[in-house]
């Protein structure tokens, strides 16, 4: 079977690899370069604990488990998945109460949660500046983070080794599904004919699927302050000891390899504007907060602040399934792309190749938008560190 995959981010390359290792002919079409879209500006925290409703929690839990399984199955070489857990603490009373409530709810769901004392948490993460008076502390040991460059490299090289072809840069202008196949018209005038196509185009999903007559509405990724827009800070190598994701009321931070860190202060996102350079105050605020959170943070240099644009479906929940009645156009769009990539890739391959309908995806089909664009409050992009 010949399958075209549109988009070479985390989801697209994971799907291409899954299809290729199963012996299919795969063509990946990428408009810019691998990882240039959403994957290039993501905090890359693999977790399920802040995800609601229950069905979305379970979907992300399956994604978390899939990372553990894939990491164990492939082994060897640079490891993209760092399952070192997530340590969260709260000093503000409202945040502390929410953290305790969330930990109790997750424990009831069977999610791995520990509630160490501040002293025990500092033993776990010696560089963390956790005050003795912290109102609540929780450790989620099954969670982790992904080094996105390492992940993309493994997915791409595996796919190419199995015969996949990468066309890059090449932009798809139109998708035309029809009985028996799908035709992709590229902006350079060439075309790709395949038995099926997978759109893994992130924030470009709506425009792309609209050309096929089956639009999947996405939250606007261009509007300043949108839930789909946010800042990420990247440090130069810094004298900071950090093993895992840390989430606090003012800063989320994780290692990024080579002594570098990725920083996120969600309250700073209100002014994030994709059309403008980030204000210098954002970098300064992130550095100041890092000094508050980690020993050595005062000596870190925030080398770059990027404005990321999240791939956020209009109702905040993942989209995964066939968009057309002839089952030729398979669409994946999700804010949880890093967490879900291995699981969605496997399920998509099963549904495309075998016609198997995965029950996990029952509430996440593209068909739910056929009645028009929903008018709901988007929350999924704002959950980490803000509960």
TrEMBL record:
Domain of life: Bacteria
Name of protein: Glycine/D-amino acid oxidase-like deaminating enzyme
Keyword Oxidoreductase set for record: yes
Residues in FAD dependent oxidoreductase domain copies: 3-350
A single GO cellular-component term on record: cytoplasm
Assigned keywords, A-Z: Oxidoreductase
GO molecular function: oxidoreductase activity
Stored Pfam families: DAO (PF01266)
Region listing for Disordered, in residue ranges: 363-387
Lineage of producing organism: Bacteria, Bacillati, Actinomycetota, Actinomycetes, Streptosporangiales
Keyword hit for Oxidoreductase: yes
